[in-house]
Design goal:
The chain is an alpha+beta fold and about 140 residues long. It has 3 helices and 6 strands, in the order E-E-H-H-E-E-H-E-E. The protein has a single domain, classed as Histidine kinase-like ATPase, C-terminal domain (Heat Shock Protein 90, 2-Layer Sandwich), CATH 3.30.565.10. Helices cover about 30% and strands about 30% of the residues. Strands 1-2-3-4-6-5 form a 6-stranded antiparallel β-sheet, covered by helices on one side. Strand 1 and strand 2 form a beta hairpin. Helix 1 packs antiparallel against helix 2 and helix 2 runs antiparallel to helix 3.
Length: about 140
């Protein structure tokens, strides 16, 4: 079953989109990031932010419980962007620092940690939002 997703503003300036909890949603999330950052004149952040949102969506796809997730792209400052993925799981993601080279998955948050100024989890009664802040270089 294909679910059509639509973008809508969530305030000024921010965008959000509800997506199916499936791997293909990462591509839609990247398009949302590219569109928002282009409109805001933050093109220098597009590639890193697209990688970060891909990892956050992948985690939500793997660990959430309900059939949809929500991607949020906001601009908290003139030179910064915050991306977040909301899901219905209360499991807090953990940064893996082990060096077990046999494991192909599970280290995406290391990439998120490297590319962002900061990232974290905001818990809700029904789930959480994992967010990450990126800032243009001075």
């Amino acid at each position: 079953m294909t679910v059509t997703a639509t973008s809508r503003p969530t305030g000024h300036p921010a965008y959000s989109q509800t997506l199916p909890r499936e791997p293909q949603s990462a591509a839609v999330a990247r398009r949302l990031v590219r569109t928002a950052l282009t409109l805001w004149g933050l093109e220098s952040l597009i590639e890193d932010t697209a990688l970060v949102v891909t990892e956050l969506v992948s985690n939500a796809v793997d660990h959430s419980r309900l059939p949809s997730i929500r991607v949020i792209v906001s601009r908290p400052s003139a030179t910064g962007v915050r991306v977040g993925v909301v899901d219905r799981s209360k499991t807090i993601p953990m940064l893996r620092t082990d060096s077990n080279g046999d494991q192909l998955r599970g280290r995406g948050l290391v990439l998120v940690d490297t590319l962002t100024e900061q990232w974290g989890t905001e818990l809700y009664r029904w789930g959480k939002q994992v967010w990450a802040d990126l800032e243009e270089a001075a």
